[in-house]
Amino acid sequence: MSKFGEEWTRGFRDMLTEAGGRAIEDAKMSGAEIDAMYVGTMAPGSLVGQEHIGALVADYMGLTPIPSTRCEAACASGGVALRQGYMAVASGIHDCVAVGGVEKMTDTPGDEIASALGGAGDQEWELFMGATFPAIYAFTARRHMLEYGTTEEQMAAVAVKNHANAAKNKYAHFQNEITIDTVMKSKYVASPLKLFDCAPITDGAAVVVLMPLDKAKKVCEQPIEITASTQASDYLALHSRESMTSLNATKVAAKKAYEQAKVSVKDIDIVEVHDCFTIAEIMAIEDLGFFPKGQGGPASAAGKTALNAEISVNTSGGLKGCGHPVGATGIKQAVEVVWQLRGTAGARQVKDAKVGMTHNVGGSGATAVVHIMKNDA
Amino acid sequence: MSKFGEEWTRGFRDMLTEAGGRAIEDAKMSGAEIDAMYVGTMAPGSLVGQEHIGALVADYMGLTPIPSTRCEAACASGGVALRQGYMAVASGIHDCVAVGGVEKMTDTPGDEIASALGGAGDQEWELFMGATFPAIYAFTARRHMLEYGTTEEQMAAVAVKNHANAAKNKYAHFQNEITIDTVMKSKYVASPLKLFDCAPITDGAAVVVLMPLDKAKKVCEQPIEITASTQASDYLALHSRESMTSLNATKVAAKKAYEQAKVSVKDIDIVEVHDCFTIAEIMAIEDLGFFPKGQGGPASAAGKTALNAEISVNTSGGLKGCGHPVGATGIKQAVEVVWQLRGTAGARQVKDAKVGMTHNVGGSGATAVVHIMKNDA
Known about the structure:
Chain A is built from 14 helices and 11 strands. Chain A has helices at residues 12-26, 44-48, 53-60, 77-90, 110-118, 133-148, 152-166, 180-184, 213-219, 248-261, 278-287, 296-301, 318-322, 326-342, and strands spanning 36-40, 68-72, 97-103, 188-190, 193-194, 204-210, 224-233, 270-272, 312-313, 355-362, 367-375.
């Protein structure tokens, strides 16, 4: 991956080619061996006036004339691209596929970013009425507080933990630890969500290389096997959903993923979840089955999701600490799981991590993508 | 497909759900049997402020919680979506997949459309310098005229033929025949391209349903087999290419497609090619191998590409006559080939059409997608 952050001097071509070069090198391949590419990116048209990112990336990475396709599912763009790459290999149509994710966000004024990101929800029913994403997740948080007694301090604990992990990750946007007080004293963006409950606007890119497992075992030092790749959808607008405090797409995708990988939630050692807002991580650890519904807040406050605790959640720092270059996030989650399963995550390494999971959400939950991976060595 | 045209009173939700309902009905399926969806659309973020089209479409078609993914490759968005759907079935991961394409263009002012479409090229090197798409294809046309003696009248013949076909297609944007004079007397948009050399701004949607062939033979009356699905990329900016008068991505994708389908160009009875501008059809019929390089213009002027002539090209009316709702075009091409191979194309039916081809191009040629299909009955 590229260093996540506010990369004022770099465009998304630079970031993605840097990450791509690293991934191909890590896989002990040459570019000539890559025979297809997928790229997850959400809103380059609105943000920087550029569509057709698949071909652009193949061009700038020197991979022309391979097929290269952009996938988009809002903040789950990276996750759906990864799943398409997985299918391309599984179908036998392509042998070696590079999958990237990228977003260049800081070239765009704040109000235009909010407007572009609002396109992840139901534009006609939500954004047009003024409901930007912090507002939509604030509805969710308020409802979670009402139904389960979740507190602002419990949400703050998510941000504190994710900053602590990010401080151990040289690729993370934020390299500093924070306290509950930092979050609680930060300004409200959309009550009850404060500035430190929200993932930042970040530039960045990440790339992984996929190939059939038997081939990977021959060419790579420590190949990681994708044992499940699932995706589900839900109603686009929050008001259409059965519940405001649970993402059905997450539940459907997770159930299928556990079945596909033939594991249960107890087998998962590390998980990267989609914490675009702190309340989103609390819902995710409930919907994925790590904690009973309503217990995500207390579990977070009790430190059960910290590094090497009951379940290590967002060791990369998550969207909150590592940053959230929208299309890159789903791929960055996979990169972090690979590093953890290989035992190369340095100061944030989880002990004996054998099975890892990624959970990538689009919009306020209308797309969820889950992957399970294991170290096959 | 929906009726292509200027659909002032309809949004893309309406058009895509209409086309989707027709496709599912045609396949003798119910929505509950569809287990994944792909949607090709180019620039809904820039054009109507809406991203996350995969989930939106699943929602509005009542298909939630199936996985639904948007693919984008500029004007080849429909083609790449079709290929992803094909892979999803080929991989065995999904059994029955709906693939849609859609673009809602007329809600947007003309200069903003030109800017959004410009994102299909290299924004930093082309659009930013003022090269909108008519200008880029004008370079190509001028060079083709210089290298091969192609004339403006020969290009005009493409538009005349495509309007004649469109006039026989009730779903087409334009229902009127035109003459060489109509084209030659129309105003220059970017010399040598005149108004009638350019595909129009169109609203529309199209959907197909894919499933394994053995299953299709059981449930559908006249299933059509996809015998090849290929894609290639080229440098994004025109100035980087080896040639300005030939699309390498088309040549690479076509070569693979002929190999995959085990046919030669002589076996193709009908072809839908990407005629965003008349010069693009001339290049396409050369690059796909129907005519030697440089002979596309004379062949068009001699009527060799007309209905039931040497090779029936763009029986739907093509992008020029049927209209070009960008993301929908690649799927509309497949719909037309299906109708032709089934013998249900009415007044524009090609006699004994057994094998058909679609050719969908993104930008000025940085993506090309080719499909070959046959009637398996």
